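User: tokens in, sequence out, please.
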């Protein structure tokens, strides 16, 4: 097998850093002097004939000991002390190049998905749920960097070296474990592992009844904080020990809701909504279930379900408000409420207030920072936006959604080279994510590369299964690239859909802008606003910055629309 040149280079630099090369040179020089000296004086001193051989043998034996000693200890004129291990700062340096703010985290951890060891292998939802709950609880500890669910779950079911996982997630420690659930009996094992050497900082096995699951979660969370020697404020400890329900049956329904919410498709979201509602029927004061229900309805409104956004956004808002009424300290509920208002109601002061409240309650909750970052760049508060998006990416480094958000951040500022680089990273992370190809098509068009723009536009339509917004993007690219006939074909198809009741006026408006038909474009935007199509919340940014066109900017109707949206 060929040797990895990077590893050879790293090993050579480590030898030099630990002064092993220096010791070898010094040892060889001194040994040579001693051997020459002994050869010249042993006869005159009447020493035995075997003296030079003995000296040579002793020097040879001492050589490996000198190397080992120099590897372990740093020798100077003032002192001899143990050599500090190398700090892997590659990723941190990359982050600092994007932001002048150094990381404030003293410790870092990723909670890997717990393995299902149950006899029937039917407890995946329970294992995932316990993992996610531990992530959410630990994220409240402000001095602890906790990797978000998306990135931790990227390693689910995969055999990976712990050091490799630690490198990819940029963390010092990992928590892994397994769960065996058999009837009412529960066995949970957990190990806290140091990434650099694979040593166990803490491990425990719990054999309990299912009702004790809450106490087990408390014990694991507190043990992690204690073993990482992380400062724990009184309020943070209260959050760790807080139980939203003491009923294991209700809790299992909630975990089933979370499990299906994270699948993000029509069937799973329908199931999630049913599980949350079942939990609420059993306990009308279970705030977490309302927060989960709000998130599920928000995802439905974004297009993960066939349900219309005019139906799902109000339900998402209602559930979020109920969660906050029961427990005002749920960051998830405040984030969900802000998200609903951002997409559906455009109540900007309240939106910012809710995002800030969510971040205050849980500084490690990546979705709050991600969506707040988007809110900020909608209002062109670029420095603040970059800070929040990069913080979200630090907490969830393998999230292609957040990485795509960073691409948008650059795209909206006309930094197209940087945007394309981020979109390419998204495609590498998620080759089937149609939105990234849609973005690439628009970005290449702004660079004047029509061939690449069309290629990526076609790919976005293919991967999305013919999504209307993706088709509109391709039509826009066609129109701007001189292929107006192809753009008109898609336009006519969409006109028929609007006549049959489909709400796709926003997509149709994009095509009209591409065709330079200003009047029809603005009429479609007005219809999209009246029908509360969810994309409206960034109308100005989309048409002026993202598409790079000012066709409608000075139209009085467009200005009036911006005023109604609070984006003038």
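Assistant: Sequence out:
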């Amino acid at each position: 097998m060929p040797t990895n040149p990077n590893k050879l280079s790293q090993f050579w630099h480590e030898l030099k850093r630990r002064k092993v090369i220096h010791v070898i040179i010094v040892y060889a020089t001194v040994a040579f002097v001693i051997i020459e000296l002994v050869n010249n004086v042993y006869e005159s001193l009447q020493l035995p004939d075997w003296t030079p051989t003995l000296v040579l043998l002793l020097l040879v034996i001492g050589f490996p000991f000198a190397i080992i000693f120099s590897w372990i200890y740093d020798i100077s004129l003032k002192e001899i002390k143990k050599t500090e291990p190398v700090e892997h700062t590659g990723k941190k340096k990359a982050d600092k190049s994007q932001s002048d703010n150094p990381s404030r985290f003293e410790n870092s951890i990723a909670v890997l998905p717990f393995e299902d060891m149950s006899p029937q292998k039917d407890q995946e939802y329970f294992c995932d749920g316990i993992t996610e709950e531990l992530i959410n609880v630990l994220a409240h500890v402000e001095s602890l960097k906790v990797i978000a669910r998306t990135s931790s779950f990227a390693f689910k079911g995969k055999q990976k070296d712990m050091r490799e996982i630690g490198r990819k997630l940029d963390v010092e420690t990992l928590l892994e474990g397994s769960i065996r659930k058999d009837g009412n009996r529960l066995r949970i094992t957990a190990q806290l592992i140091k990434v650099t050497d694979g040593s166990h900082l803490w491990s425990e096995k719990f054999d309990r009844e299912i009702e004790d699951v809450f106490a087990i979660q408390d014990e694991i969370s507190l043990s992690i904080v204690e073993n990482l020697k992380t400062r724990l404020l009184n309020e943070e400890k209260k959050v760790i020990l807080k139980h939203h329900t003491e009923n294991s049956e209700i809790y299992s329904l909630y975990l089933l809701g979370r499990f299906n919410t994270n699948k993000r498709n029509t069937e799973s979201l329908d199931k999630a909504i049913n599980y949350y509602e079942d939990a609420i029927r059993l306990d009308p004061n279970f705030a977490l279930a309302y927060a989960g229900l709000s998130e599920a309805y928000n995802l439905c409104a974004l297009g993960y379900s066939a349900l219309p956004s005019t139906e799902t956004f109000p339900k998402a808002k209602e559930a979020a408000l109920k969660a906050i009424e029961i427990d005002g300290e749920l960051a998830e509920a405040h984030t969900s409420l802000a998200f609903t208002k951002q997409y559906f109601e455009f109540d900007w002061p309240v939106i910012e207030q809710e995002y800030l409240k969510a971040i205050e309650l849980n500084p490690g909750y990546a979705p709050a920072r991600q969506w707040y970052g988007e809110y900020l760049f909608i209002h062109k508060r670029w420095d603040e936006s970059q800070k929040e998006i990069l913080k979200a990416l630090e907490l969830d480094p393998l999230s292609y959604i957040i990485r795509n958000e960073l691409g948008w951040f650059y795209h909206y500022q006309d930094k197209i080279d940087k945007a394309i680089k981020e979109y390419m990273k998204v495609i590498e992370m998620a080759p089937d994510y149609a939105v990234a190809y849609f973005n690439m098509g628009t970005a290449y068009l702004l660079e004047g590369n029509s061939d690449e723009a069309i290629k990526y536009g076609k790919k976005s339509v293919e991967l999305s299964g013919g999504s209307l917004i993706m088709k509109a993007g391709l039509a826009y690219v066609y129109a701007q690239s001189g292929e107006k006939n192809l753009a008109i074909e898609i336009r006519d198809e969409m006109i028929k859909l609007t006549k049959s009741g489909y709400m796709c006026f926003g997509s149709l408006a994009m095509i009209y802008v591409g065709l330079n038909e200003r009047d029809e474009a603005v009429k479609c935007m007005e219809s999209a606003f009246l029908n509360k199509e969810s994309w409206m919340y960034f109308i100005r940014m989309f048409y002026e910055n993202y598409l790079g066109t000012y066709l409608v900017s000075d139209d009085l109707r467009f200005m009036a629309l911006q005023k109604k949206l609070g984006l003038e």
